[in-house]
User: Which sequence fits this backbone?
């Protein structure tokens, strides 16, 4: 049996700090600045893990609408195709 969701939430949010309307990941980061979070032996991107818990498993890629790679605010995340994700990086989303 895996770790309880309550314990995971406590661990997850102990590795964050609020800054404006962002929730910034302060735990481990990969070389590109994306957060990493280990759950029951599996390493997740922190933004993808919180998206999956809040909204369910994404169909495609989890994009940061705010364009802040270590932001884990679920309101700043969306499930998009690879093409949409690339478009968003160039400033295509109106919330950036």
Assistant:
């Amino acid at each position: 049996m895996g770790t309880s969701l309550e314990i995971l939430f406590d661990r997850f949010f102990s590795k964050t700090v609020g800054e404006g309307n962002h929730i910034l990941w302060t735990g481990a980061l990969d070389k590109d600045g994306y957060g990493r979070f280990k759950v029951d032996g599996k390493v997740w991107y922190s933004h993808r893990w919180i998206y999956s818990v809040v909204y369910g498993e994404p169909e495609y890629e989890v994009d940061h609408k705010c364009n802040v790679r270590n932001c884990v605010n679920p309101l700043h995340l969306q499930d998009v195709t690879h093409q949409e994700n690339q478009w968003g990086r160039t400033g295509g989303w109106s919330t950036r």
Notes: The chain has a mean pLDDT of 90. Helices lie at 5-13, 46-55, 82-89. The two ends are 40 Å apart (CA to CA).
